[in-house]
């Protein structure tokens, strides 16, 4: 991953690695009101609530103090094979702060989620992160993709023609490793091995906070 911010965030990098393993096995900011005749149907992405109830029940069986702290979903273009779509939910524990749980659902086989869990290394300070109120989000994954498309995504797609299957949206606390900052969405348009564009969006207002483009 070429985005320096993701490289500097060990937990985000770790969660993304977990998701990739599961798959293998089974800068100026522009207002989000910048307009175009954008057709939301251009993107295929799972709504955040799609499998949340199932994930939450699994998490409560793992730990009664579990709460959602991370959401990750891949997206695709209209002509792509949407059977590859994934959505994952990350949980932490109020009872045992060092514990984490990741549950990954695939659109093609949602009845068999892939579950990984563990603990952070002894001596590593992992503050509790802000809980994500999944049922009360003001913006869903498709809304976020529309904002990102209107703020550079359309130019990236025009220049690259297609995106990788691991292009994604994710939601978590801005400074997750420190347990500080607001909840933010990040959209990653990825093409080829080194081309990418990352759009960071405030989860409450939809304001674009940052835009970064890497590669060609």
Description:
The protein has 216 residues and is α+β, with helices and mostly antiparallel strands. It has four helices and nine strands; from the N terminus they run H-H-E-H-E-E-E-E-H-E-E-E-E. The protein has helices at residues 4-7, 10-25, 52-62, 141-160; strands spanning 44-45, 66-76, 86-93, 99-106, 114-119, 168-175, 180-191, 195-202, 208-214. Strands 1, 2, 3, 4, 5, 6, 7, 8 and 9 form a nine-stranded antiparallel beta sheet that branches.
Number of helices: 4
Shape: globular
Helix content: 10-25%
Number of strands: 9
Q: What structural class do the secondary elements suggest?
A: alpha+beta
N-to-C order of helices and strands: HHEHEEEEHEEEE
How many angstroms separate the termini? 15 Å
Low-confidence spans: 1-36
Main features:
216 residues; alpha+beta; disordered N terminus
Summarize the structure.
The chain has 216 residues and is α+β, with helices and mostly antiparallel strands. The chain has helices at residues 4-7, 10-25, 52-62, 141-160, and strands spanning 44-45, 66-76, 86-93, 99-106, 114-119, 168-175, 180-191, 195-202, 208-214.
Give the SSE map.
Blueprint: H1 4-7, H2 10-25, E1 44-45, H3 52-62, E2 66-76, E3 86-93, E4 99-106, E5 114-119, H4 141-160, E6 168-175, E7 180-191, E8 195-202, E9 208-214
Antiparallel strand pairs: 1-2, 2-3, 2-6, 3-4, 4-5, 6-7, 7-8, 8-9
């Amino acid at each position: 991953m070429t985005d320096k911010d993701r490289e500097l965030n060990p937990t985000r990098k770790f969660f993304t690695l977990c998701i990739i393993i599961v798959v293998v096995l089974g800068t100026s900011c522009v207002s989000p009101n910048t307009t175009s005749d954008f057709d939301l149907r251009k993107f295929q992405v799972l709504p955040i609530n799609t499998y949340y109830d199932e994930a939450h029940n699994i998490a409560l069986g793992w730990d009664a103090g579990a709460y959602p702290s991370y959401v990750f979903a891949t997206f695709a273009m209209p002509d792509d094979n949407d059977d590859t779509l994934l959505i994952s939910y990350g949980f932490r524990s109020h009872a045992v702060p060092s514990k984490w749980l990741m549950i990954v659902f695939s659109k093609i086989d949602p009845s068999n989620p892939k579950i990984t869990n563990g603990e952070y290394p002894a001596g590593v300070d992992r503050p509790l992160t802000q809980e994500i109120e999944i049922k009360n989000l003001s913006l869903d994954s498709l809304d976020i993709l529309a904002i990102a498309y209107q703020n550079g995504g359309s130019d990236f797609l025009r220049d690259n023609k297609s995106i990788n299957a691991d292009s994604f949206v994710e939601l978590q606390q801005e400074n997750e490793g420190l347990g500080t900052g607001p909840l933010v969405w990040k959209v990653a348009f990825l093409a080829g091995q080194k081309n990418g564009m990352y759009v960071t969006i405030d989860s409450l207002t939809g304001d674009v906070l940052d835009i970064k483009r890497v590669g060609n």
